[in-house]
Amino acid sequence: MTRTAAYDRIADWYERDFLGGPAAGATAGNPRGLGHLLGELLGAGAGAACLEIGCGTGVHAARLRELGWAPVSVDLSAGMLRHARGRLPVAQGDAARLPIRDGSVAAVVAVMVHTDMPDYPAVLHEAARVLRPGGVFVHIGVHPCFCGGFADRTDADAVVVRPGYLDADWTTASWTDRGLRDKVGAGHLPLSGLLHGFLDAGLALERFAEHGDPTPIVMAVKARRSGQAAG
Question: Which residue blocks in the chain are alpha helix, DSSP H?
């Protein structure tokens, strides 16, 4: 878990510089620019609870409230939660062992965090466990085909995919020293491994979206816990 806790030492930089820079909302991979995907895939909440796995500094709480959800979150990093506490109710904990009872939330979201979690398939199992039958799960993450230690994005119009895409591993390799991955590292799952993680967790895939031009930086998935929705 030390990989995720690495955010403790960069939490202030993340909030001030990475999220708060002048191009923060315009960059396809910056979390601040992804609220439209939450709207498209998650939809309206009518006041129901929505668990955000790995909220970081809590930048999506306002958007979730706009959509009618009551956001709560679990994150491992105390440094990131120091910023998040004023934005939504939070608890410090491991995403692979959520401190939440079975079938207790209507929706779960994970936004730009799956590469921060060494065992994301275990996190997907936990998301399915805490969802009510018929509950919705929205994953928004870096695109597994075009982002990672194998992808050189120096030229935004011509991404070079080098050997390594098929390797599920952890790396600090990055095409830039101004981002996150050279600082905290990243896990990688090829597309097949990521999608099998949903299926193995008992999540039924419903919709997909890609974001970024000309080569997608983000891939999003809407899935639902199997079973009849609660009345």
Answer: 2-5, 11-13, 35-41, 61-66, 78-84, 120-130, 181-184, 191-200
